[in-house]
Amino acid sequence: MKPGELKLPYLFQPGQFGRFKIKNRIKYGACCVSNYNTRDGFITEREIARMRIIARTGCGMITNQGAYPDPLGEGKAYFRQVAIFDDKFLPQFERIAADIKEQGAMAIQQILHAGRYGGIDLGYCIQPSDVPQTLPHFRPPKVMTKDEIRDCIRQHAEAADRAIRAGFDGTEITSFMGYLLANFNSRFTNQRSDEYGGSIENRGRFMRELIDGIKQATPDNPLVVRLNGAELMDKWGGNSEDECFELMRQAADAGVDMISVTVGWQEAPESSIGRDIPPGYWNYLSERAKKTCPNTLITFGNRLPDPRMADQCLRDGVFDFWEVCRPLLADPDLIHKAAEDRLDEARRCIGSLNCLSRLFRDLPYTCTMNPALGHEVEPEYQVTPAAVRKKVMIIGAGPAGMECAITAARRGHDVTVFDKAGRVGGNLYAYAMNDLARPDDLLSVISHYEVVAKRLGIEIRLNTEVHAKFMRSVLHQYDVCVVAAGARIDRVPFENMEGAEFMVDALDVAHGRITAGKRVVVIGGGKIGLTVAEALRKNQGAEVTVVEKDKRIAGDVKPSFKWRHASWVEELGIPCLTLSQPVKVTKEGVTVRDGKGVETFLPADTVILAAASKPAHELFHEFEWMVDELHGIGDALIPRGLEQAIQEGFRLGVRL
Amino acid sequence: MSALPEPDAWQAAAARHNELFAALEPGARIGLVAREAPATMLLWEVGDAGIEVRDAPFPGFAASGADIVLAANAQALGEICSAVDAQLFVVLRAGIRSGAVVCYVLRRRCDLEAKGFEELLDALGFAFMGACR
Fold it and tell me: Is the interface score ipTM higher than 0.95?
């Protein structure tokens, strides 16, 4: 046994699922649709290349992403979702199933009919009842007739049969997160008065008939059903947790072989899988499922990203299999690192939900932490040995610089990183220290870089500012210079404003270099300004007002996190003056002018400037004639965010 | 059963928040119903002369002709009635966020924006709502 397997004996112990032996207790869950496929439902080479990576993650059971089962596309939720309503789609499914099984894993195919969230190419979606959408992204509802319900069940059974013929060992149907199965189960969306609606027994009828139809079509192959332990829709009239577990009991009684416990609907007014939910928060749902359905296997993994936590849960009988997806998108080697006792090198899923944010813009998913995701088919994204070993100097130990450093070092380059600060992380560290969600996730990015850089022998010279004089002192010692010096708050637009010198820099406050007072005005309601404002309000009890020149705050925040800032601002009682700009600052406060030209004086002992950032790219001009190759990455080119910093660092690292 | 706000007060609230309604196309309709047993719908409707308010029977979502229907639970309806003369949209937005008010959208975002709903959706907090959190 490998050293990590001895430390995590429950995770790596074999299991049994139906007639299939499973090499460990890890199920790769089909949590996300990749959107890598053709518009008409065929699997692409890009998808197959991605699944080659997933097949090699070391999981004992691997679920291929959800395919819609109907020719009209009523079940189709995502722009480039795969289809399985016809045998013409099977050759690519056969390749994926064979590859998964060649790696010693059990292959499961998920059948995903999106119901309320479906019909993406149509002018409607189908549902049990006429319940309009709460998010305008989705389509208006059309109520299913009983004939259509029967057709839908037949289509699922045929899809399952097709998957088994393609070589999959089992199938999975899913209610997660608010799909058709959930629409029938839930009181929120099922208001029928026939035998498919009303009582919980009637609402569960569609699910039981679905299970029965698929079991009859594929009697020798196990079936998984994904069911909510909590819908988080109860405030809107959805199911209570008690009802969710009653439905699980119905599924178990109907003969399903495994229940995957999930949390939340896409439109739920509460957070379920984001960075603000602590790992392990939902484990109680899985524990309850085990008690409710003692003779049915339970798999679970919502907000449970750490193999060590999963091992403990298995030891405690919380579930039978750990279901994991996003952590393996962030680091496909996570299980191997766990087995080899190298978890300190793992890239943690930080729950930024970049993957899902993109899906709802009809884009392929990507991962903040894994720049190669979705590019597996492209040789340009492979980390290959460098043809010429170079000496590389990187200016800036933030995410862009560190990602570039470790990628270049893995290719055999000799890398030195310089940073004027006393620690690795750049402005990510400051962000983490002020983040109200989960600083630990963001700090894990920094510790990952520190550990991996050390193992790769990268020299990191902290407290070392690189400028023209320094460059002259190391002239001809390096073949490549990468400027990854980040960005700083741009004061130029305020140069002529009276009292501009009284404004302090938000990054100085965020890094702890300046201490703000008790009455604060923050100029700029973007990511930096809001983060600093929220931290000052919550952690130091300061009275804080945000002034934003645009119509809305959080303009540069990821779509999946805008709501979080909006909530914090309201919960913490931080007034946000939009369409407003400072016109004069004094020691006593700041005068702001709103969109109608009305001026207001806001008393403050600290005025923090958190306006737009400016790239620190002066070094480009200074170093142009000093080094053979000169490159720039991340915020030093255009100030953006963590994802772009990591992506650009990697992309440069693989081609140096 | 909780009462809906008085039509006159509802009319005055629209006038007070004219900036949210100014861009709405004629025919745009926003309904308010009690979530439990909705029988009557209080409507803001854009006519040629601006915002008109009227009570109407609630025939179900599909037949309501509304673009947006706000369905409030009993407690939220009470809060809406109390706030109708003051911070109405603050209360509506908080109700939507907390789950006390369900905001049903009967048109797609592109159709709503074409009808001039951008400001109103913004005031209800839609800029900050999104799938999968």
Answer: no
